[in-house]
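[Protein data]
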Amino acid sequence: MTVGLFIPCYIDQFYPRAGIATLELLEKVGCTVVYPREQTCCGQPLANSGMEEEARPIYEHFVETFRAFDYIVCPSGSCVYHVNHHYDVLPPSEEVTDIRQRTFELADFLVNVIGLQKLPGARFPARVGIHNSCHGLRGLRLGASSERVGADFSYYRYLLGMVEGVELVTLDRVDECCGFGGTFSVNQPELSTKMGRDRIADHLRHGAEVVTSGDMSCLMHLEGLMRREKLPLRVMHVAEILNSAEAAVPAR
C-alpha cells in the first residue's frame, strides 16, 4: 500500500526526529511512504481560535494534497482527530468523506490496518511512562478512559510491549490531561503549568526515565517544564521508541 505521510507543524519545526522515525517505521512494516512536499497545516490552530471559516482553504488544500494515497498516516492524534471530525464543514462530497476515513493516527494504523503483531529487533532498555493525549484517548479511542465502562486497552501499551527492554511504569492518573490544549496553554498559562507539573510528578513518582506519547504537542509542553526545572526525565514520541536507534539485537 502507498501511504501519504502527514507531518504536523510542530514536529516539522521542532521535532523532526519524530517525523523521521515515523517514516522509517512505516517502511519497516512494508509500506511505500510518500511525503508530499506541498503539504501544510491541517488547520486546527485557526479552528481552535474561532476562525474555522479562515481555515477552510487549508482543509481544501489537505484534501487536494492527499487524495491520491491509499492511506494518510500522521504521528499526531490531535491533527488526525481534526481531519476526521472537523472537515465536515466542507461541502459534502465522496472525496472529502473518503479522505477523512482514510486518515489515521500512527498507532491506530499499525494496529487496525497493518495488524502489527511483532517488531523484530526493536530494543529500548528504559523505564517508560505513557502519556495519553486527550484527542487520542477520548477522540480517537486509542485506549480506555476512566470515565467509560468497558474493557481496558491501549494501542500504545500494546505496541511498546513488542519492544525488548521497555519497562512500562504504572501511573496513578493514566488518562489525565497535561494542560497543553493548544491555545489553552497560551490563554491560561498558570493553570496549564500546574496541570503539566502534576503529570510530570506522576511519572517521577513511579520512576519513569522517559515519557512517551503519540502527540508531540503534549510532550513539547511537558519537556519545557522538565528543562526549566532540570528534572531527570526526557520525552520521546512513541514512533522513536518503536523505531529505536537501539533496535539492532546482536545475533546469537
Remarks:
- The longest helix spans residues 189-205.
- The chain has two domains: 2-113, 117-242.
- The longest strand covers residues 123-130.
- The domain at 117-242 is CATH 3.40.50.1860 (Rossmann fold).
